[in-house]
Amino acid sequence: MWYEEIGSSDPEIFGLIKDEVSRQREGLEMIPSENFTSPAVMQAVGSVLTNKYSEGYPGKRYYGGNQYADAVERTAIERAKTLFGVPHVNVQPYSGSPANMEVYLAVCKPGDVICGQSLSEGGHLTHGFKTSMTGQIFKSVQYGVREDGYMDIEGARRLILESRPKLIWVGSTAYTREFPFKEFAVMADEVGAYLAADISHISGLVVGGVHESPVNYAHIVTTTTHKTLRGPRGAMIMVTEKGIRKDPELPEKIDKTVFPGMQGGPHDHVTAGIAIALLEASRPQFKEYASQIVRNARALANGLSARGIKLVTGGTDNHMVLVDLTPFGPGRGVFVQEALDAVNITTNKNTVPKDPAPPFYPSGLRLGTPALTTRGMKEPEMEAIAGMIAEVIMKVKDNELPQEREQRIAQIRKFRESLRADASLQQMRRRVVELSSRFPLYPSMRI
Ligand SMILES: *Cc1c(COP(=O)(O)O)cnc(C)c1O
What is the Å distance from ligand 1's center to 213 Cα? Predict the structure, then answer.
């Protein structure tokens, strides 16, 4: 049995982990930032490396006993350098958000102008959104997307020439098309800014050769390791050749900001997991995996479009599909997400560009194929899933969001209860469980 030690020492947490295993097995995981990491990666994260303190960098640690931790970190660094084609990598950031903060502090001073894609139009919190520290410490200017959902390159250009930021971010959490890295590089070079590409969502696609790499265009590249890259929760900061040409001290600046600037001891167990994930991603099967992710996203997009569902930009180039529910009225995302939850299809409500509803009750739905592709699903399954999602959307599309906040909460609670009693949803849920069971998740994990 797996986790038998947890079972005997803490039955309460064991029960919850067991329930989570079942939830993952019996559902369709379609949140684009999630994935199923390999058992090897999970074992590394649960290994004795969690016991070690290694403040500093390989060969320059503040504690003894680091000969193996050094080798683990050097291996992770070398694998990342080879895989992404960059001269410098820091694998210590605890996660994507601290990694991005470390980039700011390495190249900016508080009060500097920084520029990123706005959260409501696909960007990440850490790219200068007002509730994030990054939007408070720095003067943040934000670009967005055009009416048709594609990146507003002309708008970004005007903004950048006018505000002359010190640091520009390209990369986002809800954008379904190729990122225009080259165009942003031209703008950054024109104003002498650092260009940081945050490829958290697409790093697996970049490594797999199905999305252009930003390495020739950006000075700095950040990525989480747990999304399409399929590793443990963590992040990396890379400095490119172009970055070193702009600023020969950039690698040291980044390293110093990560430690001791922002963080203490690195999570050596995660570093080992990252090293394993990078090895897995260097194998030919990973290229096949990455291209299947994109084929699956296209099949999903086509299946939804064929059923009259509107998509932001009309389709996808990557692992993600953004459903635009505004034709049914504002704020429908929450109802669709709740109804899909009731049939074990896990998704997330998301804003659409120029969303008429507030961000907590947005008018879109974000879907992704990385996790389902890891389970082995292909185009026929995506077509079947598109059919079920479209059916659910049509079923709940007329639910309106009340204006008043208290009423909203009550209405959503009532809606959730009505879902539980719905016979057609119960039947669809059984179909989802049956479909999932044909693609076993962690078959060797007997729990
Ligand atoms: C997920 C993500 C992050 C943040 O990662 P966390 O590990 O959740 O902190 C940063 N940037 C982008 C573009 C992301 O998609």
Answer: 18
Q: Which domain holds residue 290?
A: 284-437
Question: What residue ranges line ligand 1, CB within 6 angstroms?
Answer: 33, 95-97, 100, 124, 126, 171-173, 198, 200-201, 224
How do residues 401-428 score in pLDDT, each as one tens digit? 888 888 888 999 999 999 989 999 999 9
CB 135 within 8 A of CB 188: no
CB 87 within 8 A of CB 235: no
Q: Is residue 311 located within the same domain as residue 329? A: yes
Residue 227 has pLDDT above 70, yes or no: yes
Cα–ligand 1 centroid distance for 232 (angstroms): 13
Which residues participate in catalysis according to the annotation?
53, 55, 198, 224, 227, 233
Helices (H), 307-369: 333-342
Determine which residue's CA is closest to atom 5 belonging to ligand 1: 96
The SS3 assignment for 171 reads coil
Assessment of whether the complete model's pTM goes beyond 0.90: yes
The count of domains in the chain is 2
Residue 98: inside a domain:
yes
Q: Which of 224, 226, 236, 263 to mutate to test the pocket of ligand 1 (most atoms within 8 A of CB)?
A: 224
Note the pLDDT of residue 405: 84
Q: Measure the CA–CA gap between 182 and 171, rounded to whole angstroms.
A: 12
Atom of ligand 1 nearest to the CA of 233: 7
For ligand 1, the distance from its centroid to the CA atom of residue 227, given in whole angstroms, is 9
227 neighbors 311 (Cβ within 8 angstroms):
no
pLDDT at 153 over 80: yes
Question: Greatest CA span in the chain, whole angstroms?
Answer: 64
Q: Do residues 246 and 311 share a domain?
A: no
Same domain, residue pair 84 and 146: yes
Q: Tokens 């609670």 belong to which residue?
A: 413
**CATH code for the domain of 140:** 3.40.640.10
